Amino acid sequence: MESNTAANPAIRLRKQQELAARFGLFALKAQYIPDVLQEACIIVSLGLGVSFAKVLRYLPEEHQFLLEAGVGWAASEIGVTRLGADLESPAGYAFQTSQPVFSNDLSTENRFRTPELLQRYAVRGAVNVIIRGDSMRYGVLEADAPSGEHISQRDVAFLDTIATIIALALERRRTEDSQHADDVFSAGVLEASNDCIQVIDLAGTIEFINANGLQQMEIPALMSVKGQPWHKLWPDSQAKLVEQAIEDARQGKPSRFEAPRPSPNNSSRWWDVSISPLGNQQGEIKHLVAVARDITERVHTEASLSALLSNRDSLLGRTELLMLEVHHRVRNSLQLIQTLLLLQSSNTHDDSVREQLKTAASRVMTVAAVHKRLHEQGAPVETDAAAYLQGLVHELQYSLVEQNTRRIKLVAAELLMPAERLSSLGLITAELVTNALKYGKGTVTVSLYDRGDTLELVVEDEGHGFPASFPTSHSGGLGIRLVKMFSRGGENSLYVDRTVPHSRITVRLPITRSA
Fold first, then answer.
1. What 3 state SS string does 143-166 have?
2. φ, ψ at 193 (rounded to 5°)
3. How does pLDDT run across 279-300, given as a tens digit for each residue?
4. In this structure, what are the phi and psi dihedrals at residue 508, rounded to the nearest 5 degrees?
5. Cα–Cα dist 165/160, whole Å
6. What is the spatial distance between Cα 217 and Cα 292, in angstroms, rounded to a whole number?
7. How many CA atoms lie within 13 A of 253 on its CB side?
8. Could you tell me which of 277, 272, 296, 304 has the C-alpha nearest to residue 477?
9. What gap in Å lies between CA 384 and CA 377, rounded to an integer?
């Protein structure tokens, strides 16, 4: 069965566009051509959903190809295996005619012979495009699909884009000492990206914005902003944040922030901005590159979710009998969703999609556990938070810890609180425990303290602690954003304790006690 990405051309095309942009940025910053060639093979494998990809370098003295980089092939093949470069081989035909070659079934081909390497790896379909250069032809980029994997004629354009970026990287390497050649390379790669890409000089002024970026930010022309301070693109309220990001990049540290930017029609759009230093061959920082992605829809969705959470408490207690029935159906629905996500993950050929589906299924499972623990006693008005967490920790121990290699323990005294607030407490606990099991070490300890009108939830493990950049005030993964929203305490609700030698994170939750 084909994955959703393979079966849906629009999804497949969008994924290929994102991967091409990612590879363009990688090639722009990479210092070594072997790294570029290997990354190209990885990108091709991901973009086409195939097990094999390779770069073949032409050896004119031997009139053969050398397998120079690849994915899926044995390590002993790379840098050693030779393939024919004559017109009777698919790669040779593409190289000599400069025309792409596509075959979905090599076993029935009359145009070419199937190379012995492809026969040994049971390759059935292949796409070949030439890697051109201004001064010479380098070789061929090839994607190979064994039986059960799908490629199509539409994939030729994606492969050709990757081959073009490789050629630009090769030309830049040959003319590294020429500033003109570097400018041509930069403009060519950046214009190929679907993201909004901006090049900034060390003084913080705008040098370049690609065409897609001008369109997305509704800037009429590059000349209208070229030479202006980059922070002028952002509201005055964000000036400190933007200036700090520029300073970090000048010091060689990539930075990231999220900020709104008004558009000409007076609506505000939100952007996720990553800014990185760009150095020359000697490691000197010459430019800064900012990549901005429109996240307006995500920000609005999170705001809507926060509003729903704020209004949820009053809705839960209106009709107890009705809610008991609703809770029963919700539990069944959550179990069904988890099963469907796991089934879909087992049917996809894309490793990244499979991991995302498994993560989603795990989150659904934890929501179901929180829901079951909260409502299994008939949705009481108030509940002992310590007893509730003890039951939840027991379920997490059973469902998340494989072969009892890790232990989860609870430290908490009896504490009565409104039942409707326990769901947020449970979801935060489940998210932090899941992260501790995934990234930490040893025993995971969950502690709950009564601080008057505030609850303090502490989750710690025996790992080496969090990185210095975690979490930033304007970024973070979905899990951290959910913890902040469920805590209802804003940015200051989450605190990483760096005074201890292990991993410890604290969440503060405002609470209204039962009468």
1. EEEECCCCCCCCHHHHHHHHHHHH
2. -85, 145
3. 766 667 888 888 888 888 888 8
4. -105, 130
5. 9
6. 9
7. 10
8. 272
9. 12
Q: How many CB atoms are closer than 10 A to CB 459?
A: 22
- Give the predicted TM-score (pTM) of the model: 0.41
| SS3 per-residue string spanning 396-452 | HHHHHCHHHCCCEEEEECCCEEEHHHHHHHHHHHHHHHHHHHHHCCCCEEEEEEECC
What is the rounded CA–CA span in Å between residue 478 and residue 359?
11
* C-alpha closest to that of 352 among 9, 125, 19, 76: 19
Residue type, 154: R
445 Cβ contact partners less than 8 Å away, ≥ 6 residues apart: 408, 409, 410, 411, 458, 459, 460, 461
* Best CA proximity match to 482, nearest among 305, 259, 269, 274: 305
Pairwise CA distance, residues 448 & 459, whole Å: 9
Residue 336 CA: distances (Å) to CA of 330, 331, 426: 10, 9, 21
- Residues 164-194 as b/e (b if ≥16 CB within 10 A, e otherwise) read bbbbbbbbbbebeeeeebbebbbebbbebbb
Number of CB atoms found within 10 A of residue 498's CB: 11
Q: Are 124 and 106 in contact (CB under 8 A)?
A: yes
261 confidence band (pLDDT: 50, 70, 90): confident
Of residues 186, 183, 184, 181, the one with CA closest to residue 197 = 186
Instruction: List pLDDT tens digits, range 233-259.
Output: 898 888 888 899 999 888 888 888 888
Phi and psi at 140, nearest 5°, equal -135, 140
Tell me how far apart the alpha carbons of residues 50 and 472 are, in angstroms, rounded to a whole number: 37
Burial degree of 263 (CB within 10 A; 0-12, 13-18, 19+): middle
